[in-house]
Each structure stands twice: as structure tokens, then as C-alpha cells.
Write a structure and sequence with these properties.
Elements (H helix, E strand, L loop, with lengths): L18 E3 L10 E2 L22 E3 L12 E7 L2 E10 L3 H15 L7 H4 L5 E13 L6 E12 L2 E12 L5 H25 L3
Helix pairs in contact: 1-3
Length: 201
């Protein structure tokens, strides 16, 4: 069962409400949403030995214009986006996803080095583009989609792979979207961690 997301405000949204078009005035959110790693930890965080030959530095993914926002995008056609009313992330989704990737790698026993705090980068660097991170309402039933185009730079060269997952969403509202996106983002992060793990050595 998916567990509820941590919330930085005391109140939840009362209902889904209408969507708001890009550029429209949006009410202040009643809650801010974040991502949290839900998978079991193979190695407790803080107890992963740092082998610099296999250590990974996770960079903030690049994002298209539709994701350069705190709001939750909804694809309503092949050429149009709207945003969920009165709902937003605590940070831009690419930064939330970066931390989720790092936590998932560490949970899987892969050392992660933050170059900003450690002053040194890992021998492997994970970068990429978070292409999709929102609701797709173009079909008969809405779904959430997360797509990450990953690039792993290693001493042996570059490796690239696309990771994508989707799942039905209960409704086009902030709480429903955030819970569903957290679950799907965790699946993508687990796929990425397994790929990175196989790419060691």
C-alpha cells in the first residue's frame, strides 16, 4: 500500500477543483508536496562504505519549460498543458527527483557523493533530463507519468538509457497526483539504481 506523502502544511486540499491554464491566477496552495523514498534499505543510510571507484554523483536533471515550476502539470492535448489548481511542490520537481535518486542509490548500497559538500565528485556521474513528471489527461482515464532520460558517465565512457513508468491516478487533484507521482517516481528511481548497480566496476 502506498503511504501518504509528508506534507509541509497542516491542511489538505478540500477537493480537486478545476484546472488553471498557464499564465492564469492560481490561489495559494493549502499544502506543499514532496517526494520520499519508499523502498526498503539494503544498507542503512550513513553506513555505506565510500568506494570512490564506484561512487556516484547525482546531478540535478534538466527539465523542459513545462516543468520549470512548482506546480503540477497536466497534459490535456498534444500541444497544451494546464496546471492543477492550488497545488504545488515544496521545490521544483527536478530537485526533488535528484534527492530521490540519491536516496534510492544509497538504500541499494551504492555510495553517493555530493560534490558541493564533499569537495570531490564520484568517479561516476549520473545526469539526465526529467522529460515528464505530471498527469496525462489525454486518454479516457488520467494517469501519472514519469520519464527520465539518464546518462551515466564512467571512466570507461558514457552509457545512456530511458526510464519511464506510469500508473492510473484517482483524480486530477493535488493529493491524488502527489501520492501517485511519488509511487511512480520511486519505481523509476529503483530502475535507475538497478541499472547503475549493474554498471559498476
Amino acid at each position: 500500500m502506498m503511504r501518504a506523502l509528508p506534507i509541509l502544511a497542516a491542511l489538505l486540499l478540500a477537493g480537486c477543483g478545476p484546472l488553471v491554464q498557464i499564465g492564469g491566477n492560481s490561489p495559494s496552495p493549502a499544502a506543499l508536496y514532496t517526494l520520499s523514498a519508499t523502498g526498503p534499505a539494503a544498507v542503512p543510510i550513513g553506513q555505506v562504505p565510500v568506494n570512490m571507484a564506484d561512487a556516484v554523483t547525482v546531478q540535478v536533471p534538466a527539465v523542459p519549460g513545462a516543468l520549470q515550476t512548482l506546480r503540477i502539470p497536466v497534459s490535456v492535448s498534444d500541444t497544451a498543458y494546464q496546471y492543477v489548481k492550488a497545488s504545488q511542490w515544496a521545490e521544483q520537481p527536478n530537485r526533488l527527483f535528484q534527492r530521490l535518486l540519491a536516496d534510492t542509490l544509497v538504500h541499494g548500497g551504492i555510495a553517493v557523493v555530493d560534490s558541493r559538500t564533499a569537495g570531490v565528485s564520484g568517479k561516476r556521474v549520473l545526469s539526465g533530463q526529467l522529460v515528464a513528471f505530471g498527469i496525462d489527461a489525454r486518454g479516457s482515464e488520467p494517469k501519472v507519468t514519469v520519464r527520465y532520460d539518464a546518462t551515466l558517465a564512467t571512466p570507461a565512457g558514457l552509457r545512456q538509457r530511458r526510464f519511464e513508468r506510469d500508473a492510473p491516478v484517482a483524480g486530477i487533484g493535488g493529493p491524488e497526483a502527489a501520492i501517485a507521482l511519488n509511487a511512480v517516481a520511486n519505481l523509476v528511481a529503483a530502475d535507475v539504481a538497478a541499472w547503475v548497480g549493474r554498471s559498476s566496476g
